[in-house]
Design a protein that fits this description.
Elements (H helix, E strand, L loop, with lengths): L2 H18 L3 E3 H10 L12 H12 L7 E4 L2 E5 L1 H11 L2
Antiparallel strand pairs: 1-3, 2-3
Helix pairs in contact: 2-3
Length: 92
Amino acid sequence: MTNRNYNQLQHCIDDYLERQGKREIDEMEANSVLASEGLMDDDQSHPGRPLRELLALMRDSNLLPKNIRQSLGSWIIRNSRAFQMRQQIFSF
């Protein structure tokens, strides 16, 4: 996956979070959003699996952004724009 493709996925998720007024979503909801936009297919028998596999590859190659974390086997994806803004405010 190229950096451009990843940015497109992240932009789509950020837009969804802002429209819904949410701060974060799990990988199943994010994969559903990406599938509805035609950016990534979803596995109907295992919802969220394609995105989980992508995130695991990014984690294993140390490319996972700071706004995405894994907690108790589930992936939590926060709005990257809000996350970057918060980091700028608190970096003195």
